[in-house]
Design a protein that fits this description.
The chain has 306 residues and is an alpha/beta fold. The protein has one domain (11-264): Spore Coat Polysaccharide Biosynthesis Protein SpsA, Chain A (Alpha-Beta Complex), CATH 3.90.550. Helices cover 34% and strands 22% of the residues. The chain has 11 helices and 13 strands. It has helices at residues 42-52, 67-72, 77-86, 89-100, 115-120, 123-126, 146-157, 219-226, 237-246, 266-278, 284-296; strands spanning 11-15, 36-37, 40-41, 57-62, 103-108, 131-134, 138-140, 160-166, 176-182, 189-197, 208-216, 251-255, 260-262. Helix 8 (219-226) crosses helix 9 (237-246) and helix 10 (266-278) crosses helix 11. The chain is globular and about 60 Å long. The structure holds 1-O-phosphono-alpha-D-glucopyranose (G1P). The site of 1-O-phosphono-alpha-D-glucopyranose has 13 residues, from strand 11 and helix 9.
Length: 306
């Protein structure tokens, strides 16, 4: 068992090998993680979040057709020289920020055998330390310090910590679902007593879903090596966490109530772009003005505008 406070997480793992089928045909040639959310790839928000939380060493677990991700986090001297020559300091800073925000490393998954299998590819990079896993579909607002809180809970209790969100019973079959018990740490920190990946609604232990942030004990790797394919024939991280719970290892949940932008499906992606753009200093004022006008002309019944 991990002794509380023994080691602190310093590294982040970001699985990016998914095929992005929900965004076809765009994702035929562009990794879904690079689709722009306003003017930054979704993935840049995730890397920036890891760096802000004190995890400057990032490993991306990639797959085929993901070379553009490596290019994005690499320097582009010709582009930088051109912007410098034009004196375009704002864009130059934006181009630099993607390469300077963190030390980004890459490993290939080879075969798409599930999230658990993707995380297992990080074993050599991580070693014997707790580490964070960030899934690219969820962007957490930078004003809400979810990962920071999870890291603090892990440092205090040891073991593993997962981010939870009440998605309502009607949506729970799209997520890993958990059974929990209260702790003395306040209402948003719970002890996880069971996990099941994408259960049928009538079998779900609660409406609390795992969202895409984890701080994991390194013991998860040995469990993942022994974890048989589960739901969808894939090696599930949720199943490995369930084994850790069964073994008596501490697994805590932090119940999130802040701002989350789901870029995983098309409708939520559109909402995320509008929400984030409308809060920006540069684009926000004209976008909000236009949105008010646009919305006032929309038919109320959901019919298409003429
Ligand atoms: C994965 C996990 C699931 C979790 C979800 C969060 O599923 O397997 O437990 O709830 O991420 O986004 P996926 O969305 O990759 O199918």
């Amino acid at each position: 068992m991990t002794s509380p406070g023994a080691r602190h997480a310093r590294k982040a793992v970001i699985p990016v090998a998914g095929m992005g089928t929900r965004f076809l045909p765009a994702t035929k040639a562009i990794p879904k993680e690079l689709l722009p959310v306003v003017d930054r790839p979704a993935l840049e928000y995730i890397v920036a979040e890891a760096a802000r939380a004190g995890l400057p060493e990032v490993l991306m677990v990639t797959g085929r057709n993901k070379a553009a991700i490596e290019d994005f986090f690499d320097r582009v001297p010709e582009l930088e020289a051109a912007l410098e020559k034009k004196g375009d300091d704002g864009r130059l800073a934006a181009v630099h920020s993607s390469t300077e925000v963190a030390q980004v490393h890459f490993v290939r998954q080879g075969e798409a055998k599930g999230l658990g299998h993707a995380v297992l590819q990080a074993a050599a990079f991580v070693g014997q330390e707790p580490f964070a896993v960030l899934l690219g579909d969820d962007i957490i607002d930078e004003r809400d310090l979810l990962l920071e809180q999870m890291l603090a809970v892990q440092a205090e209790h040891g073991g593993s910590v997962i981010a939870l969100l009440d998605v309502g019973m009607e949506n729970i079959d799209k997520y890993g679902a958990v059974a929990v018990e209260p702790t003395s740490d306040g209402r948003d920190v719970v002890a996880v007593t069971g996990l099941v990946e994408k259960p049928p609604v009538d079998e779900a232990p609660s409406s609390l879903a795992i969202i895409g942030r984890y701080v994991l004990a390194p013991e998860v790797f040995e469990v993942l090596r022994e974890t048989a394919p589960g739901r969808g024939g894939e090696i599930q991280l949720t199943d490995a966490l369930a084994t850790l719970v069964e073994r008596g290892e501490p697994v805590h949940g932090v119940v999130f109530s802040g701002r989350r932008y789901d870029t995983g499906d098309r409708l939520d992606y559109l909402k995320a772009v509008v929400q984030l753009a409308s809060e920006r200093d540069d684009l926000g004022p004209p976008l909000r003005a236009w949105l008010h006008e646009f919305v006032s002309q929309l038919p109320r019944d959901g019919a298409s505008p003429s």
